[in-house]
Amino acid sequence: MCGRFALSAPVETIRQHFKLREDIVLQPRYNIAPSQQVAVVREAVPGVNKLVMMRWGLVPSWASDLKFSNMLINARAETLHQKPSFSVPFKKSRCLLPADGFYEWRAVPGLKTKQPYLVRMQNGGVFAFGGLWSSWKDKTSGEIVESCTIITTEPNILLAEIHNRMPVIIQPDHYATWLGQHSDPAALKELFSPVDPAGMICHPVSTLCNSTKIDSPDCIVEKHKGM
Predict the structure, then answer these.
(1) What's the pLDDT score for residue 86?
(2) Of 95, 119, 96, 98, residue with least CA distance to 28
(3) In a 3-state reduction of DSSP, which class is residue 24?
(4) Which residues contact 15 (CB under 8 A, 6 or more apart)?
(5) Which of 2, 148, 202, 209 is catalytic?
(6) DSSP assignments along 34-62, one per residue
């Protein structure tokens, strides 16, 4: 599962990483939670990416209300093709969710509260979760809500010690394949393999990130023994 993540990199770094042509405006985020608005990169026209804001938690086009969003923050890579909520978006509405860290929680013997860990790339750089998006229309108000979900897969060796799932991380060389409208489904599924742990690091952080009301740099600070 991926239930919280961070994106605090400078906007110009994000813009260049995803080869966005337009200027973007984003505030640093240290504890992004489900149902909140998140930055999403999708293909505007072939070969041109665009950053938009979406609700985190997929609302299928056929959903009766927004409650579906709370249940669909993640999509299991192994069963995408079996779930009506995900099979159609997988075919035509794939996206990337920029991040520079994500949280996972580990049960610790003797402690009632799980220990949160922040997972990042060793270079501290921006990366991208593989995601799906959908557009939903409120039949009463006519409001259009665009929403997204993060795909998860089996953990790599680093994450396996903390949790039994991890987000799918798409490598930059494969962004065009993932976003492309005519990409081979078999080639897409090959991107679901756990990312190489050699380029990743993780460290314990305080339980501040447990609260969706706290979104500060303190959330990502490494917790040392005795703290």
Answers:
(1) 95
(2) 98
(3) coil
(4) 23, 24, 51
(5) 2
(6) TTSEEEEEEEEETTEEEEEEEEES---TT
C-alpha dist (Å) from residue 30 to 14, 43, 53, 209, 225:
15, 26, 17, 8, 22
2 noted as active-site residue: yes
CB 91 within 8 A of CB 184: no
219 is catalytic: no
Query: Which is the catalytic residue, given 43, 95, 104, 146?
Result: 104
**CA distances to 47, 61, 109, 112, 135 from 69, in Å:** 29, 11, 33, 28, 12
Looking only at the bridges linking them, the beta strands covering 29-32 and 5-7 are antiparallel
All structural domains of the chain:
5-102+124-196 (3.90.1680.10)
pTM as predicted: 0.96
pLDDT along the chain (227 residues), means of 10: 94 96 95 97 92 96 84 95 92 96 93 94 96 93 95 97 96 96 92 95 96 97 74
Quote the CA–CA distance of 219 and 114 in Å, as a whole number: 15
Q: Which amino acid is at 188?
A: L
